[in-house]
Amino acid sequence: AVKRWPEGRGGFIQPPSVFIPLAEYSGLILELGEWALEQACLALSQLCNSPHPVRRVAVNVSMPQLRQPGFIGKVAQAIGRHGINPATLELEITERLAVDDFGTGYSSLSHLRDLPIDCLKIDRCFISEIREGKGGMFAETIIAFAHKLGVSTVAEGVETFEQAGFLRGLGCTEAQGYLYAKPMPLNELLTWLAARA
Question: Has residue 11 got a pLDDT over 70?
Answer without folding.
Answer: no
